[in-house]
Amino acid sequence: xxxxxxxxxxxxxxxxxxxxxxxxxxxxxxxxxxxxxxxxxxxxxxxxxxxxxxxxxxxxxxxxxxxxxxxxxxxxxxxxxxxxxxxxxxxxxxxxxxxxxxxxxxxxxxxxxxxxxxxxxxxxxxxxxxxxxxxxxxxxxxxxxxxxxxxxxxxxxxxxxxxxxxxx
Length: 168
Known about the structure:
The protein is mainly alpha-helical. The protein has 6 helices and 3 strands; from the N terminus they run ααβαααββα. It has a 3-stranded mixed sheet with strand order 1-2-3. It is globular. The mean pLDDT is 94.
């Protein structure tokens, strides 16, 4: 990655803008249109919105763990024990309104941005995570923030593709 894309201010601005970008991507959609997907075996727009909000909420804990106990271990084993498609069903993404998830997403991003702006050396603090393959990796707060900024961007692209497929 170029040094410009690794610039903390640029990454943090993308991260902070994630909720507005997601809301812009779904603006004007009806309840029925939120239930459209590219194909029968892919997620609907509604499911994508819930997934983004829940994923962000989970990784928020990783950021806070690194900020509070740099070099500590963060585990997502409970989550990785099931495929993501099972979480979509368990947490009933298809049957829930998106407004509470959008509010959670906005609040979490605002909360983390505030913390990062108040804690010295926040960007470099880190935690250790064990990936599903067993590998232990050190992730800095900056790494997690960038990963989450990219995550929402990728799913916004999925939503755009669905909208294009249905001329919405």
